[in-house]
Amino acid sequence: MLHPRSGLCSGAVAILALVALVSPAAAVDQLNAYSIWPENWARPMLQEFEQATGIKVNFVRFSSGEALARVIAEKGNPRVDVLFGGPVETFAAGIKEGIFEPYKPPSFNSLPARFKQADGYWVAVADDPLVFMTNAKFLKENGLKGPPVSWEDLLNPAYKGMLQMADARTSGTAVTRIFSIIEVNGRNEDKAFDYMKKLRKNVQVYTKSGGGGTLPVGLGQAGGGIFFIVDALDTKAKGYDVVISFPREGIGTSAEAIALLKGAKNAEAGKKLIDWATSPAMQNLYAKHKINFVPANPDVKVEPSLAEVLKGAKIFPIDDAYAGANRKRVVDRWISEVLNAKE
């Protein structure tokens, strides 16, 4: 069984897919994109776009870190026109690298301030809170009274070697998690990293993609983890007996964004995709395709069952400017002090 965020387009598959990206000379009504969203979420959205506009989107899926590295490496001669989906911290980091072309779609002025970069370098298409997700059987077998409802609960010895969560070297989900922990600790990084070092002892594996640990948790191979709600609810919808909870101290949510690449060869088609993706035309389709994102466009209502899950949760937005400015430094510190920590 393959999971949505398990990083399917890698290695040889990704190389073949890259070769397949269409040049502007080959087709006027096409554009190329890197999608940070998993293929089974990006594909239905982009097919709906093609049906609505006649413009085909050729895309390759990468995790946030991989996609960012590629667009930076291709700066000046981009292979794609649009970066589609993914946590806003990734896009904020990209602005520093000068890889995006500012563009303000028709919906720009109606979007809340946190769902757009002021100059139009990126625009949000959704919001995606982090959650704790645990295996119900694991909780019962280990005598736990319920799912974790505090960050401290994850340090319980019962979780030793039984948590899975994403690797910050490749995953935007992991970056959002790290900045959530920093925010919960009042941006005291030393305190936040002390916590993450303690948490490391309970981590079984750091997965390449954000949702890579959801299936093992669902199967009981892992006891729990920290994931975006869209991944967690997708796991639950597949019938796995998992419990979703939120820490009382609060947890971060990251806007999912879209941006036009500087030097895009199919810029006009790319702008049409951005127009469509930031409007109700796309965001009203989340419920139809059972994709549990919170819409960014204020004219689109949150699907009732998703709203019920979020009810009462303490959720705060990740500061994209702060995260973007400090992303590399913080991730490097995480690699050095947490991932590669010596026992």
Report on the structure:
The structure is a single chain. The chain starts with 10 loop residues before the first helix and ends with a helix. 38% of the residues lie in helices and 20% in strands. Helix 2 links the parallel strand 1 and strand 2 (56-61). The protein is globular. Residues 1-17 and 23-27 have low confidence and may be disordered. It has two domains: 11-127 and 255-310, Periplasmic binding protein-like II (D-Maltodextrin-Binding Protein, domain 2, 3-Layer(aba) Sandwich), CATH 3.40.190; 129-252 and 313-339, D-Maltodextrin-Binding Protein, domain 2, CATH 3.40.190.10. By secondary structure, it is an alpha/beta fold.
Salient structural properties:
D-Maltodextrin-Binding Protein, domain 2; 13 helices; twelve-stranded mixed sheet; 2 domains
Question: Briefly, what CATH class of the largest domain?
Answer: Alpha Beta
Radius of gyration: 19 Å
Beta strand count: 12
Class from helix and strand fractions: alpha/beta
CATH homologous group name of the largest domain: Periplasmic binding protein-like II
Q: Write down the domain tally.
A: 2
β-strand percent reads 15-25%
Tell me the overall shape: globular
Q: Classify the helix fraction into a percent range.
A: 25-40%
Tally of helical segments: 13
What's the CATH architecture of the largest domain? Answer: 3-Layer(aba) Sandwich
Mean pLDDT: 92
Contiguous uncertain segments of 5+ residues: 1-17, 23-27
Task: Give the termini distance in whole angstroms.
Answer: 34 Å
Major sheet summary line: 12 strands, mixed
**SSE arrangement, N to C:** HEHEHEHEEHEHHEHEHEEHHEHEH
Within the CATH hierarchy, at the fold level, what is the topology of the largest domain? D-Maltodextrin-Binding Protein, domain 2
